[in-house]
Structure prediction request, 159 residues.
Amino acid sequence: MVLASVAGAQEETKSFPANVSFETGDTWVYESRKFRLFGVQACLRGTTYRSPEGDEVDCGMRSIASIAALFSTGSIGCQPVGHAKDGATFVVCAAELDGTTVDVGTALISSGSAFAAAFPSGAPVSAAYAIAEIAAKDNRSGLWAGAFVHPVSLLLGEQ
Prediction:
């Protein structure tokens, strides 16, 4: 029974080219279908990121640039895990980079390019992603090197 489940999951794996259309740093459109990384929250478009040098840019666009760069450097394969209220398909993805397979969500969050998504209660969707976010924050990686309003705080109405 387990073998059949693994085979079914492998058949559902979808590969994506580098030229998908990114809506946000965690959501893209490919072949008229919307896909969203499960457990990942990108910076919101239209919010401000202030670099350590004082330059201000759109935080959401910084997140898009990071996921686009990841998609352009390796082979991305994703497996569907559910559906969002807006019709997007939630996926977990792996990237093949220089012969190593990495989890896309972990890569984005640990580099400080995205954040661990949270349930409306504030609890993280993924404990592993929450730990990766804490490490990125402690190391002042990526966005954590500057100033921004955390997107989960905005979405939960805490700001």
Observations:
- Residues 1-10 have pLDDT under 50 and may be disordered.
